[in-house]
Structures are given as C-alpha cells and as structure tokens.
Amino acid sequence: MSERLRRHPDMRLTALAGEGVVLHLGSRRYFTVNETGLVILTELENPRTFDELVSAVLEEFEVERHEAEATTRAFLTQCRDAAVVLEAAE
Amino acid sequence: MKLRTDLPLGWRLRAGMAALVIPPLVHVVPMHRLAPRLGAAPGTAPSGPPEGRAAAWVDALLERLPGPWRHTCLKRSAVLYHLFRRTGAPVELWIGVRRGEAGALAAHAWLVRDGEPYLERGEEEIGRFAVIARFPERAGA
Q1: Which CATH class is domain A4-84?
Q2: Residues of A with CB below 8 A from B107's CB?
Q3: What span, in angstroms and rounded, lies between the C-alpha atoms of B135 and B31?
Q4: Which of A90, B14, B90, B126 is the most exposed place for a label (fewest CB within 10 A)?
Q5: Which residues of A touch B74 (CB under 8 A)?
C-alpha cells in the first residue's frame, strides 16, 4: 500500500474532549471518531502513505505494529466508505 | 399571516430574495464552495438599517417557509452572511459541534463579528461549541 491518501476536501475535523468530530460539508453529516481516528485524520491534513499513518499511530499509542496496522486499515476502509478520505493525486 | 416590519422596502426585497434563493443552495452545495459566492462583492449593497432588524425579518421569513427553506441555523446564517457581507460588514459564518446534556452530538451555525457571536440568540451557549469550520476560510485552515 504505497498510495498516498488525503482528506476529502469536503471534510472538516476538530477535537472535542479527547475524541474527533468529523463534519462532511457535502453531505452535512457529522460524527465522532475515537482517539486513533483523530490521530490518523490529523495526519491526513497532508498526503500520507499507509505506512506513515501506521508510524503515527505507533508513536502515539503503545500498541504492537500488527495491531496498529489492523486498526489503521479498518479505519481507512470506513473513511473511504464515508467519503472522508481519498487517494491523493500524484 | 402578515409579516410586519419597519425594514425599508429595498432591504425587504433584498432579504426576501436571499431567503428564497440561498436556503435550497445550502442543501446541494457544500458550504466551503457556497460561502465564497455568498460573500462575493463586499460593499456592493448599501449599508442598511440596524442589522438586528434585517436578521429578525429573515428569521420571520424562514420560519414561515416550507421544505428546503425551513428555518435552520445554517440557512439563517448563510442568508445573513450574504446580506451583511454585501454591505461590507466583516461578518463570518462559524459551524461548531458539542456534546449535549444527554451526550448526543449537536452542531450549530452562527454569525461572528469581531470575534464575538453576532445577532445570536443564546450567546452564552456558543462558548460550549468546538468550532469545526469557519467562513471565509483562512489560508492553511
């Protein structure tokens, strides 16, 4: 997974009491993400590869690499489904 | 039901037109694309009567309109943002989120002028919202 990912341009993010809140300006939907999601989406302010996101999670939380990879992969799948994250143009 | 106001006719027409055109656009155009158009041409409309009267007129209109025009904080804010930016007033439109008493997530939109909530009912509540978007957007934000 060497593709670079970025936030969807319609997405806005803020921190609220330890969790993240995502607002999608296109759909006008908003929802919360957990601390890990907040770290990943904060990183995605600039284009990042999957490995870079996993590294960010490892820096922030005391977890095993395989766990960080699984969590990051699952979160990114949800984000793509919700049109919150997309592939960055080369 | 008759709408009563002492707002000058020109302002009533301008506000009425904005209240008819902008709310449906809020449904289909993401705010970060709509806001630059709403805020375009600052200073091209004459300064009007006290802005509180214009806001009350817009509130009254939206509260009487159905469906896509029905009063919401975002539609109200978008209409007023357009009207006041056109007069050159440096208003901003902010959107915030917070956890309510029962723990439910809630969002709200409001106008800001000189860093303070502007023409907003329940100003004391605004400080409980975490700002998630503001328009005009700042470079790098």
Answers
A1: alpha beta
A2: 23, 30
A3: 8
A4: A90
A5: 28
Q: Which of A22, A23, A24 to mutate to test the interface with B (most CBs of B within 10 A)?
A: A23
The domains of chain A are located at 4-84
Beta strands in B6-121 (DSSP E): 91-99, 105-113, 116-118
A34 vs B: CB within 8 A: no
The pTM for the full model equals: 0.89
d(CA B125, CA B141): 24
Contacts of B139 in chain A (CB under 8 A): none
Of A12, A16, A32, the CB nearest to B133: A12
Q: In this predicted model, what pLDDT tens digit does every residue of B5-48 receive, in sequence order? A: 778 888 889 999 999 999 999 999 999 999 999 988 777 777 76
Distance of CA B139 to the CA centre of its chain: 22
Residue with the two structure tokens 């992969």: A73
Query: For residue B44, which of B82, B12, B8, B15 has the smallest C-alpha distance?
Result: B82
**Rounded Cα–Cα distance for residues B19 and B104 (Å):** 30
User: B132 vs A31: CB contact, 8 Å cut-off?
Assistant: no
CA atoms within 13 A on the CB side of B25: 18
Q: pLDDT per residue over B46-65, tens digit each?
A: 776 678 888 999 999 999 99
Chain B interface includes A31 (CB < 8 A): yes
In this prediction, the answer to ipTM > 0.90 reads: no
